[in-house]
Amino acid sequence: MTFPTPRPRKSLLVMAVATAMSTSGMVSAQTTSDLEARLAELEQRIIAAEQRAAAAERRADQAEQEVAQEQAAGASTDSRDIESRLAKVERHASGEEGFSFNAYARSGLLIGENGKSTEGGPYLTPAGQQGGAVGRLGNEPDTYAEAVLNYKMRFDNGAKAKYTTMIADGVTTSNDWTSDESSLNVRQVYAEFSDLPSFTGAFENASIWAGKRFDRDNFDIHWLDSDFIFLAGTGGGIYDMQLADNWKSNLSVYGRSFTDFPVDSHNPAEESGSTDNLILTTNNYFGNWQWMLSGMNATDNDERLTEGNISAADNGVHTMVAYHGDSFFGLGDGNFKAAVMHGQGLGAETKSIGSNGNLSEDATATRLGLYGTTYLAPNWRVAPAILAETSEDRYVEGDQYDWATLNVRLANELTENFEMQYEGSYQWMDISPEGFGGNNAVEGDYTKLTIAPTFKPEVGGFWKRPEIRVFASWSDWDEALNDYSADDAFGSDGFTGGEWAFGVQSEVWF
Predict the structure, then answer these.
(1) pLDDT tens across 459-493, in order?
(2) pLDDT digits over 102-153, tens only?
(3) Which of 497, 474, 472, 495 is nearest to 109 (CA)?
(4) What is the pTM of this model?
(5) What are the b/e assignments for 116-155, b being 16+ CB within 10 Å?
(6) Nearest to 125 by CA among 135, 113, 134
(7) Residues 131, 221: contact at Cβ < 8 Å?
(8) Which bin fits 266, alpha (ψ -120 to 50), beta or left (φ > 0)?
């Protein structure tokens, strides 16, 4: 709003005199006293009018100043509002705030040399029941998908919150409608808070969470489809406590349910039991080193009726020492990870911590895992991996499960959209189940070789996805392994060794 500029004012007294002069003929007929009285009254009116005009000008000036101030303030407010909205858009665009979607999926066709679906999967060998994975390239018959929905918020005080839900499903049928076989599941649902202003000292950069989730710091050997360590369940915890300059620590408690297990009871009405395995974990990082320690307790799990009539464990301990390298074993560019794990009682399930309630109180297990990635030449990359475990007294007294896997993934980048992938796997196993599960003692080797022409939107590194690959795989194993179990893949009709498999598969993550 603006006001017109005031015009210069003529003296009201001059105007009055001019008026009086124009009426001089009339003045001559009046007495001097009347004229003086009228002039005095006119002067008072002029003074009052000038005062009113001055006051009006002052009010106009003040109004103009107020409007100018309001306009300036309004412009500043508009600018601050625009900057705030722009910052919010930038936070949404960067993923710091708002909705986001992440996914992992694989799907393809695995056909045997007889033209029918064939056995497959990274855990198809006898050692697979105890976590002994073999290479996954050209060996997966399933469709598996994970959809992760996140919503992030940032508050005026700087605090942040994240809500996550993860839905997953896996089937082995090739049909389009798979509801009868579906295992659709909500695998994660949790909330996490970080940057809380009231957190100070060692907790200044810490975040807290509660719900059902995979632990944030799980890590795996992707080419084997095997975790080094997999901690998951329902519970709560705190990440990234800074306990010293070179010491960060996480603390969590997870619960896992053991339900409907047979119990040794004299009460016929009580035929099954249930309990929760509570897992308390501290995870510590010292530079590239990681030390993880978990203690667990499952009250009444020792009432479980086990084969061999031995007591199932109702507690356990698990520990891991790992190194996360930023080179290829110190030999060149790349990365590597190495870990040694040991567990007793319920902790003798060295990978999926606390997930196995059948372990005996005397069970012990030690596992070694390592892998690395590097470029051998500008267009050739290699990723070797080793995974091995020895365990005893797992389920019955005197049982023994020993196995080791060597896997190598090799890729040759031929164009910016095409590469040739190769994979070789070798697994040795010596298993003495002492009759547990009706299984027989076996010792032998398994070998798999795969060639896979692969298409990508952009090649360059082992972690580039999505990709579509066609493949041919050959696998063979010692005949003795067919005698391990009547229920596993080995020894089934048409699957006794020297097998070819062909197929196509897509793999996506983002």
Answers:
(1) 998 999 999 999 999 999 999 999 999 888 898 88
(2) 999 999 999 999 999 999 999 999 999 999 999 999 999 999 999 999 999 9
(3) 472
(4) 0.81
(5) ebbbbbbbbbbbbbbbbbbbbbbbbbebbbbebbbebebe
(6) 134
(7) no
(8) alpha
